[in-house]
């Protein structure tokens, strides 16, 4: 169990070096009890066993070009100074077919990486009553949806946030940089090789992050300044209130159309009033004291001081501290270079250190040892939200490395059937996800 007063999930013990290995045929209930609920990473031999899973197609470049070549994508160029991806390099727009041509070009294949298409416009509801949603099937995945299940059996009742295709042409190992995501991740390797270095969420004070952690929820979700309204399930409090209003408005309309005897209008009015009060509560002109008084209960998580401020070693590194406020890169990324991370923990590093790498920017004293996971084609890895990971990727025999992943909203409940505490809101979001993908 955790050494943190707020985090209730699993942490590696002193002698843990790898994650548990399971068969991909594990039941959804066992998956929940052994890993998802415990916030514990796990690797799986085999891919999905759903009837609609056709992973062999997603690893076929000719098939991808035929089915989705016309899709517009934005690809990430490698940072030529750091020789890694996962930086703030401006993405370049091209068609998916053009990108696949680049991947197969030996002179350019290692210079670009297809990652999540987060810069696309948000999906809109059928009317203005529904909150906006992130694109669930971004380009080029939206043209490949007959080749994978929208909700894998193994993930039970978790709600889908997004599916992504990851493609890189490098034959030499390249790194993603050390970072964490904000959703549970089921990562399926289709071709090439990946090595994951994993740290639990409680390692955040030691990893020299670009942002300032304000809150650590029980399920491990990390919240950064100034996003203090983020709940354990990843929803902004105002967005959650908006979903509740939309849900009750929709139900109210259905009752009236069906000439129901009882009226749910009062319930709708209550939700609408709560939304208005919450918006007033978080108005920028409100006193900062009011915001502090309205923070999360200690039972749901811990409001944290600046994690680095208590560490003398980091305070003395004034240049690094100042850089925290100057970077355009996400707050969940670390300043520690992959080659330095590998050397510090004596992990064999296939990545040469850049000439100007800062070898003094190492994990702070007390940092736990990471888990090291080697992933081969035909294997999966489950990584709970806010588990830090540095990923080294490379293709083989001239073929690219290709992966497919599911990001699921992080659960904050204790029941596999209802993995989210706010069942009203999450049942509504789940239904909207299904509706979006049938339109």
From TrEMBL:
Pfam families: Cupin_8. Residues 1-24, 246-313 are annotated as: Disordered. InterPro entries: Cupin_8 (IPR041667), JmjC_dom (IPR003347), RmlC-like_jellyroll (IPR014710). Signal peptide: none annotated. PROSITE patterns: JMJC. Residues 284-313 have a biased composition (Acidic residues). Residues 246-259 have a biased composition (Basic residues). Residues 140-425 form the JmjC domain. Residues 12-21, 260-283 have a biased composition (Basic and acidic residues). Gene3D superfamilies: Jelly Rolls. PANTHER family: HYPOXIA-INDUCIBLE FACTOR 1 ALPHA INHIBITOR-RELATED, JMJC DOMAIN-CONTAINING PROTEIN 4. This is JmjC domain-containing protein 4. It comes from Malassezia restricta (strain ATCC 96810 / NBRC 103918 / CBS 7877) (Seborrheic dermatitis infection agent). The gene is jmj4.
